[in-house]
Design brief:
It is a single chain. The chain has about 150 residues and is α+β, with helices and mostly antiparallel strands. It has two domains: about 45 residues, no CATH class; about 90 residues, Helicase, Ruva Protein, domain 3 (Orthogonal Bundle), CATH 1.10.8. Helix content is about 50%, strand content about 15%. The strands form two sheets. A three-stranded mixed β-sheet has the order 3-4-5. Strands 1-2 form a two-stranded antiparallel ribbon. Strand 4 and strand 5 form a beta hairpin. Helix 4 packs across helix 5. The radius of gyration is 25 Å and the shape is elongated.
Length: about 150
């Protein structure tokens, strides 16, 4: 069964009377059989969404924001200040960046390598209020110490 789309001219707004756009109502096509709906959505979405890879500076800013957010939380709740050295940041970026997913896994890497060890140490009574320094102790291993 061929897909039928309902095209119509849109009414121009007050602000831009020189443009006469065409509007396509996709609802009738989407209510057809499921395979048609999936094919249509795949075609529509694949042509619209495009991402550029994140630069190293952008990733570093995102990591700084995540660490600052976690640090504020620990300082407010437990009196712990988090400091992360450059080698540990590099290990976090290596673990938390995916070309396919961008920086989405970065927060998970911070949770696994920074937050969870802090929580475990806090509940194990191995920490006191103050500054906790995180540093890389291997290629993808981060350890912390407290003065």
């Amino acid at each position: 069964m061929p897909m039928q789309l309902d095209f119509q001219e849109a009414t121009p707004t007050r602000h831009d009377l020189s443009v006469n756009p065409i509007v396509c109502d996709l609802r009738p096509a989407l209510q057809q059989q499921p395979t048609t709906r999936h094919v249509l959505l795949r075609k529509v979405i694949s042509g619209v969404i495009g991402f550029q890879p994140l630069s190293d500076e952008q990733l570093a800013k995102i990591l700084d924001q995540i660490i600052a957010e976690k640090s504020r939380m620990f300082e407010a709740e437990k009196g712990l200040r988090i400091k992360v050295d450059q080698l540990a940041r590099k290990a976090l970026l290596d673990r938390g960046y995916s070309p396919d997913l961008g920086a989405r896994p970065l927060e998970r890497a911070v949770d696994e390598m920074i937050v969870q060890p802090l929580v475990d140490a806090w509940f194990g009574n191995r920490l006191r209020t103050g500054t906790v320094q995180f540093s890389a102790s291997g290629e993808n291993t981060i350890t912390f110490s407290q003065d």
